[in-house]
Amino acid sequence: MARCMVFACGLPLSFWGDAVQYAAYILNRAPTNANPGRASPLKILTKQTPQLGKIVVFGSSCTVQRDPTNKNFSQRAQQGMIIGIGEEVKGYRVYLPKDKKVVTSQHVQNIETLNKTQNLHVQRLYQDRDSAEAEQESREQGSGAANQGSAGKENGTKVRRKVRKKSSKKKTWTRERHGPRNYKEAMHSQSKVGRMKAMVEELKALEGNSVWEQTFGVNYSVTFAAVIDMTCVKLILVLARKWRVPAKHGDVPNAYVKADKEEDLWIYIRVPQGMKVSEEILKELGVETDAKVALELKKALYGLKQAGRLWSKLLHAKLEEIGFHQSLVDMCVYYRYKAGVLIVVGVYVDDLL
């Protein structure tokens, strides 16, 4: 399906990822014979009938408004091609051939594969929410003016208030990102429930490991975690496709435990639950119970602030030992060229690509 979508609209093969993503968007909302009542996969998952009014032909020509409120004598719209629908940000994902970039915008008009009525319907889908917000803002401004007017009458003075139009400079008509950048945007995204659940699980993990009980300079000194840039991940996948070799992914089991702790820091822990100290050792130490015993940590553990950095140092040393070199562009990318064979490795904490 994705192959036909790319070839039918005439876009280059570099848009195969967008075609696959849009094809998955359509198939998840399309009726399926394998499900009871030919229900779509999305309906089975969410128990709600998906809306199909936003789906248009992949690669449809359209015009994108830059800023509808701009009154300057400049170009207000630009020609583009629809290559998908935004996930976190509402609107169509549009490729602008002139600027050679992809933007996400709600202000898309003149879609060539739709007639005039259908174009108006698509615009209303995105304008309903904007109209509701604008109406609420006007009510707030009106109530503020009424309060000021009544206060002026009580003081015996006539108040004349000029209503100013709200500046539109803060409005964003096109967006190039696909995910929320902060907590506020995450709470207004479609994946709000999943993100809240992930935050709660992360806090429980930190609480269980007592991470915040560590003191800087006493229990740890420097923190770091190797996280490869997504651009480099895409580069590795493109190289694998070009060379026609499979891109392999591996996870290092118990990676943090393999690294030694910092030599100049002494870290002590309580006896973990489920473990018992032998009576001989208790007598040797001169204590009666395990509660009075402290264990010296020899290896890094998950939950320690410096564990990620210690593991990164160990992995860096091992890769250099077998002939790999660290990239100057991204320190999480390593490469080795030997006997005419180039091997590229990307590091994401304890995952290797």
TrEMBL record:
Biased composition (Low complexity): 141-152
Name of this chain's protein: Putative mitochondrial protein
Organism: Phytophthora megakarya
Keyword Hydrolase: yes
All copies of domain Retroviral polymerase SH3-like, residue ranges: 62-115
Pfam families documented for this protein: RVT_2, SH3_retrovirus
Residue ranges occupied by any Reverse transcriptase Ty1/copia-type domain in the UniProt entry: 212-353
Keywords for the protein's UniProt record, in alphabetical order: Hydrolase, Metal-binding, Signal
Signal peptide segment: 1-19
